[in-house]
Amino acid sequence: MRNAVLALLFMGVPGLAMSSTSYIVTVSVKDAVSDRQFPSFLLQSLDQVNTVRSGECKYAGLLSRQSDQVLVLHGKMSCIYEQGTSHMDMPEFSISDEGGSGSIEMGEEGTTMWQYSVDVKVQDL
């Protein structure tokens, strides 16, 4: 009887049942000499950092909540080359809490010199 009451309580009260959301993030960075397609990575919760590698570069991404319906993707990219290293705080993307994608391009006169693209997919578990 006690188990039946607990089961009904969990089903009847939203938020008490165990459910979680994870996020699949895909990132690419293109410039004049390279096209970095980082492997997709999983963030099992908000405010978790995950790092992936593409060649001599690595990307660390974190999703945080900006408001009830908006998430923010924070990213950092660092590369180690023969001639030195580079570190960059990537532009932040505001994304719907249902997922989404975006891209930022920089260049002159119709020529893209740098492009940063992201895609965030939501997985309800």
UniProtKB/TrEMBL annotation:
UniProt keywords, alphabetically: Signal
Stretch forming the signal peptide: 1-19
Recorded superkingdom: Bacteria
UniProt protein name: DUF3617 domain-containing protein
